[in-house]
Amino acid sequence: MTIEILMPALSPTMTEGNLVKWLKKEGDSLKSGEVLAEIETDKATMEVEVIDEGILGKIIVPAGTEGVKVNTLIGLILEEGETAENLTHQSSASAKNPDPKPQEVSLPSSQNLEPKEKASSPTSSVGRILSSPLARRLAFEKNIDLSTIQGSGPRGRIVKKDIEETAQTMASPRPSSSFESAYEDVALTTMRKVVAKRLTESKQTIPHFYVSMDAELDALLALRKELNNGLKDAKVSVNDLLIKACARTLMDVPEANASWMETSLRLYKTADISVAVSLEEGLITPIIRNAQSKSILDISTEMKTLREKAQSGKLAPSEFQGGSFSLSNMGMYGVTSFSAILNPPQACILAVGTGQEKAVVRNGALSIATLMTLTLSVDHRVVDGAVAAQFLKVLKNYIENPVLILA
Fold first, then answer.
1. 299-319 pLDDT, tens per residue?
2. DSSP helix/strand/coil, 126
3. Lowest mean pLDDT among 15-19, 172-176, 333-337, 372-376
4. Are 98 and 131 in contact (CB under 8 A)?
């Protein structure tokens, strides 16, 4: 009895993925723990390991196939003593999965077709276009007419590469005219689609409100300088200190360390801080777990590792799924203040602006201080205004008296 290899669900939000690469070929022996394939999810490209040992008897879904639904049959494993004749599932699998073989698609009768087959043309002698299923789907998504494409596959078959090249040509900047501005259409990545969907749902379905407060940053900057002067091989960032400050604040104001669970409120016992990291493909939030009990240096080291893994697409699901509170810092870009969209089901996300020197009044006299604007976005179903204000008040105290963070 052959063993079916199904498209795995590698994250709770994953409904489909891209089969990037098979690392085994048909006929190869499979041992438990070996890497079988690479799957691109909505957040990262992940390796899938062999669970059932045997021989890779049949690859149903070829490498490079995009949009493979979870639980789709992608391959078959032969157990000991079985041969290729035992691939009894092949026909049924082909019926319920994307067919990797080229198919012929009839054109509408109104098309003006060449009656004779041309060796270099994608149209056959019976007036049909040879194209792969993936190429047809991509052409539909990108609104490309298959009859205008010269296929590069066998007998002029149109393949994925032909569609991508055509789409790239169509997306190239064009000279502007008196009627139309120059533009470029960039294809959406899987991560960008998921980010767009989740943030749209968050903004439309969660009742946000926002609370802002300025905090003086000079003492925290001084502490950071002192720490870095004492460290030989590591450097602590302002963000590392803010992660720790948020963690301490969440322990002091536990009502803000919560989630809306539809039928209940979930109050977290640890401060698991999701930190926004911007990538070319979209946004991801790796998590510093138990930040309340970690040292500044531990947080700094862990954050560097997570950021590098995020940038290389190697984050494991456990490193970006979950979290009890989010932090988004755009100070390094010179942004003075902004309001972040909630990262559901978390009830709060803190938006941090850049530090700016401003005139302040102390004891009736003017002086200069570095001020930073903190804006807390809040799910009003979970957290009320008074709790949000208390959170910012406590956080401001930790920032302006940062030695308390180390206590």
1. 999 999 999 999 888 888 889
2. coil
3. 172-176
4. no
Distance, CA of 149 to CA of 300 (rounded, Å): 52
> Which pairing describes strands 54-59 and 45-49: parallel, antiparallel, or unpaired?
unpaired
Tokens 């204000």 correspond to 389
| Tokens read off for 226 | 């002192």
Question: pLDDT by residue (tens digit) across 357-406?
Answer: 999 998 899 999 999 999 999 999 999 999 999 999 999 999 999 999 98
CB 130 within 8 A of CB 157: yes
- Nearest-10 Cα torsion for 85, 89, 92, 96: -130
Q: Which residues are known catalytic residues?
A: 380
Tell me which H or E stretch contains 306: helix 296-311
Q: What percentage of residues in the chain have a pLDDT greater than 70? A: 84
Helices (H) and strands (E) in the chain, counts: 9, 21
SS3 category, 12: coil
307: number of Cβ within 10 Å: 16
pTM above 0.85, yes or no: no
Residue 121 has pLDDT above 90, yes or no: no
Per DSSP, the residues of 169-201 read HHHS-----SS-------PPPHHHHHHHHHHHH
Q: Rounded distance, CA 257 to CA 278, Å?
A: 24
User: Does residue 345 have a cis bond before it (omega within 30 degrees)?
Assistant: yes
Q: Are 77 and 58 in contact (CB under 8 A)?
A: no
CA pair distance 377, 210, nearest whole angstrom:
5
Report residue 99's pLDDT band, with 50, 70 and 90 as the boundaries: very low
H-assigned helices in 90-147: 90-96, 133-141
Please, which residues bridge with residue 58 across strands? 76
Task: Tell me the C-alpha distance between 205 and 357, whole Å.
Answer: 38
